[in-house]
Amino acid sequence: NDNRRERGLFNDYSYVAQLNLLTDGWLDAAVVYLDGDQETTLDDLGSMSIKPEYTLAGLVSLDFGNVVVAGHYAHSPADGVEGNLNSYMGGVSFPDLFGRNNELGLYGGISPAVGRDPLLLEAYYRLSVNEFFSVTPALIYTDSDAAVDNADNLYGAVRARFSF
Questions:
Q1: Among 156, 154, 99, which residue's Cα sits nearest to residue 126?
Q2: Is residue 116 helix, strand or coil?
Q3: What is the pLDDT, as a whole number, of residue 38?
């Protein structure tokens, strides 16, 4: 709903292509390619505009029954800066822990940033109330690894999911 000349259907676009390997067994994997025409502000002060050239990512999930191990890696060369916007994340979850459709999960990794490695860690427990509703309290730790404000942060979050 933006009628300016530099906006519209063929400007500021983004698209994604994804190839999945989904099995009924222990392995699921995907390769993802993202591209677009949008800049992203990614520095501590909100003033550096970076345009990723594209993003290529790989995801894998290994389901061993009572334990699921998963992770991803993403690579994005960036225009206008030295360095790339690489990120990776890995984790483990325990399905049906302390009840059907409940899940305990722990994951962590590095978020995309140029010249630093911002850390993200999360622990969560999904509690299924019934087949249509679940509540997930989480504890999230972040370290921005920034020269300006290298603060450690601890957050609490509660997510609710409705399934129909």
A1: 99
A2: coil
A3: 61
